[in-house]
Amino acid sequence: MTLRVDILRPTLGAGGADRVTLTLLRGLDRSRFAPRLVLLRREGELMDRVPPELEVVELGARSLWTAAPPLARHLRRSTPDVLLSTSSGTNPLAVAARALARVRCPVVISERTVYRRDGAPGKRLLLNRLKRATYRHADRVTAVSEGVARDLVRHFRLPEERVEVVLNPVVTPRMLERSFHEVEHPWVGDASRPLLLGAGRLVPAKGFDLLIEALARIRRTHDARLVLLGDGPERETLLRRAAERGVAEAVDLPGWQEEPWAWMRRATVFVLPSRFEGLPGVLIEAMACGAAVVAADCHAGPREIVTPEEDGLLVPVGDPGALSDAVARLLDDQGLRTRLGARAAQSAGRFSVDEVLGRYERVLAAAVATA
Fold it and tell me: Using H for helix, E for strand and C for coil, what is the string for the chain?
């Protein structure tokens, strides 16, 4: 029996969860699962990467708050065997729409972010309350890391036995093959000047302001340069910060890169300075590409990926001094960089598609079997 799986997201943009969703659409066993993509709006940087044979359903909702009725109508009309939500924002929506539709379709939700109260206070508070009210009614609740799972138990009052950790399928053969492609940038390949690399959405949570501060300290002793891959509302703020710290000529923001892996393979050091994470896919990707990595030891994610001193370095959150010291240590010790990078490439294998897809498939099949 082939199970019809609807995978729900707001859009298919450039984020890590969007990439994971695309991997699921491509990789689910077609002899057992028939996936379909359901979007609030049919837009995003990765839309043209959806396999052409797959159906894409657009609900036509402009926001999460207006999407429950059209999703309920879709569930009544299309009757999927299981609905999988891969967005923290659409998780409450999936549960609410199933109740509104009055259908027996099981709902599986994937929580990808840690519990937070910061940001827009009203929206954050409302979303947290919706999660607390709806998550207990999902058929299966998965978390991308142990830290996220602990938050679900502590803050949303879910029993431990109801939360299952399912890692992200990040490392693919295509990614590894394309990591050896060339990079057209004047800073890449210049062995005389170290290249630091960061990647992610340009928002405060990613801590790139801390990385620019760390760069200013590093450049007192090392002629290093920094490339930040990504787009977001903090772009101009980061450029101003670089100018204020006197490192503008050593910082480049070339924008979002659909395939950042060749950059990662050629970086001297990959740095993840995040204040918050769920399970940072870019850190896993960089390690899989053999990069020596430095990551902030934030509440969830990095410590479950990096074993300190074995396959990377961890530093305290929000500490540009510790960040600069760790990077400088790697710049000064090529042997350490080589050893950590080689070990990182090996340890990232547990996030490979072959390792993780089977767990997603078991969760989906179990939700249908026990519905």
Answer: CCEEEEEEECCCCCCHHHHHHHHHHHHCCCCCEEEEEEECCCCCCCHHHCCCCCCEEECCCCCHHHCHHHHHHHHHHHCCCEEEECCCCHHHHHHHHHHHHCCCCCEEEEECCCCCCCCCHHHHHHHHHHHHHHHHHCCEEEECCHHHHHHHHHHCCCCHHHEEECCCCCECHHHHHHCCCCCCCCCCCCCCCCEEEEECCCCHHHCHHHHHHHHHHHCCCCCCEEEEECCCCCHHHHHHHHHHCCCHHHEEEEECCCCCHHHHHHCCEEEECCCCCCCCHHHHHHHHCCCCEEEECCCCCHHHHCCECCCEEEECCCCHHHHHHHHHHHHHCHHHHHHHHHHHHHHHHHHEHHHHHHHHHHHHHHHHHHC
